[in-house]
Amino acid sequence: MPYLVLVLGIIVGLYALYRFFIKASPEQIRNLIRYSVIIIYSLILLFFALTARIIISLALLLLSIPFVIAHFKGKAQKDNTQNEE
Fold first, then answer.
1. What is the DSSP letter of 52?
2. How far apart are CA 80 and CA 42, in angstroms?
3. Is residue 29 part of a domain?
4. DSSP-assigned letter for residue 24
5. Cα(37)–Cα(40) distance, rounded to whole angstroms?
6. Each residue of 1-44: pLDDT tens digit?
7. 19 in a domain, yes or no?
8. How many separate domains does the chain show?
9. How far is CA 18 from CA 12, 15, 27, in A?
10. What is the pTM of this model?
C-alpha cells in the first residue's frame, strides 16, 4: 500500500511539473532549475554534515562559494537594470 501511494504521488507530481513546463516562461523554467539545484545541493551538504562526514561537507561548501557569489552578483545587476528602467 505505501508503494501505491508513492507511485500515485510521483505521477501527480510529474503531471504538475508537465503542466508547469507548458505554461511557464523560459525565465520561470530557468529559475525553477536553478533553485532546484541549489536545494538539492544544500540537502546533500546537510546530509554529509549530519552523518559526521564534515570534511566532505566543508569541501562541498568551499566549492559552492564561487557559484553563490556569481548568483548574487547576477541578481544585483538584474535588480539595478530593472530600477533604471
1. T
2. 28
3. yes
4. -
5. 5
6. 889 999 999 999 999 999 999 999 998 998 888 888 888 888 88
7. no
8. 1
9. 10, 5, 16
10. 0.63
